Amino acid sequence: TKTAAAIAVNIFFIEVPGKGSEVQQKDVAPL
Fold first, then answer.
1. DSSP H helical segments within 1-31, as ranges?
2. How do residues 5-28 score in pLDDT, each as one tens digit?
3. Cβ neighbours of residue 5 under 8 Å, at least 6 residues apart?
4. Following CA atoms 31, 23, 9, 30 in sequence, which dihedral angle do they give, to the nearest 10 degrees?
C-alpha cells in the first residue's frame, strides 16, 4: 500500500542523519 511504502521510506531516511526530512519529503510526496 501507499502507507506501507511511505513508512518504509520514512524509516529508511530516519537512519540517515541530516538528510532525513529533506530527502524523505522528495521521495514520499509522489506516493
1. 2-14, 20-28
2. 777 777 766 555 555 455 555 555
3. 31
4. 0
Query: In 1-31, which positions are buried (b, 16+ CB within 10 angstroms) versus exposed (e)?
Result: eeeeeeeebeeebeeeeeeeeeebeeebeee
Task: Give the pTM.
Answer: 0.32
Q: Residues near 2 by Cβ (< 8 Å), separated by ≥ 6? A: 31
Alpha-carbon distance of 30 to 6, in angstroms, equals 10
Residue that is written with C-alpha cell 510526496 in the block: 29
